[in-house]
Design brief:
The chain has about 400 residues and is an alpha+beta fold. The chain has 10 helices and 21 strands. It has helices at about 5-60, 65-80, 90-100, 130-135, 155-165, 215-230, 250-260, 305-315, 375-380, 390-399; strands spanning about 85-90, 105, 110-115, 120-125, 140-145, 150, 170-175, 185-190, 190-195, 195-200, 205-210, 235-240, 245, 270-275, 280-285, 295-300, 305, 320-325, 330-335, 345-355, 370. Helix 6 (about 215-230) runs parallel beside helix 7 and helix 7 (about 250-260) packs parallel to helix 8. The N and C termini lie far apart (about 80 Å).
Length: about 400
């Protein structure tokens, strides 16, 4: 037989439990409040230190303080001190950054340095597909004149800047292949687009090299896949080595060409999760897919979007990964505009692949590990795939 609790005792217990609840709630609130106070105090101390530095500079600096430059430097330093791909960009820098993300670049596509012996600029690198490359300029060539002005020690720095193409006007270069050879006049437009997709067939195997992820990459990739499939390939190798890109939207479009509708895991081929684990962006695939054996070539310079592609194709059981453990950078950026026109690019989330764990910090591990030398990585763009050990392993994996 159950005993009844007296009414007065019941009321007392209710009051005790209510008091305990209030005490616990207040305790949690106070701990949170103390953290806020500490944070506010720390920020106050930091801003106070900046104010003190400003006063010292104003009272003692021998020169004119250019506050626009100073603020840009302070903002750049603050953003660059954060982990991830964070940056402070002026309006002009952001316009160039956005153009680069779409595959458009300023300049003629070469680098050069002053050669005092020949009183000329000597070409030190040429970008494949650039105006310089297409005009036949090669490493070791001499630039003796720019816009009908001879090169000298006093003007070489300004001419090197001119080659960057930031003033967007046409450039006339006088080129000499060797000290004793005749000079050739070349006129170049200082802006160019790079194709992010190249492909070829080797035996019965198709090979697609991706160099970046731009807005047109998925269309170019699809055309390459269709052309190779029409040529009766029995397997396909996708090369994403040396790609550092955080254009996950464009990478997801490329992945969508290969994989079917996502129905397992989180139901998306990629999800961006913020610091609270909240989804802020989701990328999906349609039902179309490519059914052919695949190998994906990766190395430790495969970063961001390249890692997502490799992880996803393995998650969908579409590909064997060959090469090195990837860089392990899953940072996801968002741009915030300021009233001045400047832009803050901030890492706001981490990207997660279809099923496997987020690769941030750990990278994507290969199924078949084959290391590459640093010199081989540097020369990858101009390398012959028939001599590439990873390509050979990719072919073997498809046999």
């Amino acid at each position: 037989m159950s005993k009844k609790i007296p009414f007065a005792v019941a009321i007392a217990l209710i009051l005790i439990f209510s008091a305990l609840t209030v005490i616990l709630t207040v305790s949690v609130y106070l701990r949170s409040y103390n953290k806020i106070l500490i944070s506010v105090y720390q920020r106050s101390q930091q801003f106070s230190a900046l104010s003190d530095i400003d006063e010292i500079i104003k009272d003692n600096y021998y020169g004119e303080v250019k506050y626009d430059s100073a603020m840009t430097g302070a903002a750049s330093g603050y953003l660059s001190s954060l982990d991830g791909e964070c940056a402070y960009l002026t309006a002009g820098e952001y316009a160039e950054f956005s153009a680069n993300n779409e595959g458009s670049f300023p300049g003629v596509g070469l680098t050069a340095e002053f050669d005092s012996e020949n009183n000329a600029l000597i070409v030190t690198s040429v970008i494949n597909g650039s105006p310089a490359y297409n005009s036949g300029i090669e490493i070791g060539d001499f630039i003796t004149e720019i816009d009908s002005s001879e090169i000298s020690l006093s003007n070489q720095a300004s001419f090197i800047e001119r080659l960057s193409g930031r003033d967007k006007t046409e450039i006339r270069l006088k080129i000499r292949k060797a000290p004793e050879e005749t000079e050739t006049l070349i006129e170049l437009t200082p802006v160019y687009r790079l194709s992010s997709v190249s492909y070829q067939k080797s035996g019965s195997i198709g090979y697609i090299k991706l160099s970046a992820f731009y807005s047109d990459t998925s269309d170019l990739f699809k055309k390459a896949v269709n052309a190779l499939m029409a040529d009766s390939i029995t397997g396909l190798i996708i090369d994403v080595r040396n790609i550092k890109s955080f254009n996950y939207e464009y990478a997801a479009d490329v992945i969508d060409v290969i994989v079917p509708l996502a129905t397992e895991g989180n139901g998306a081929i990629a999800t961006a999760l913020d610091y609270q684990g909240k989804s802020i962006a989701v990328y999906s695939a349609d039902a179309a897919s490519v059914n052919i054996p695949l190998s994906v070539l990766i190395n430790d310079r495969s970063e961001g979007a390249a890692e997502l592609l490799a992880a996803d194709l393995r998650d969908f059981s579409k590909a064997v990964l060959i090469g090195e453990n990837t860089a392990g950078n899953a940072s996801y950026q968002k741009a915030f505009s300021l009233e001045s026109g400047a832009v803050v690019v901030l890492t706001v989330a981490k990207i997660c692949p279809y099923i496997s764990e987020c690769f941030d910090g750990s990278g994507v591990s290969p199924d078949i590990e084959i290391p590459m030398s640093e010199s081989a990585k540097d020369a990858l763009d101009s390398a012959d795939i028939s001599n590439d050990e990873l390509f050979k392993a990719g072919v073997s994996a498809l046999s």
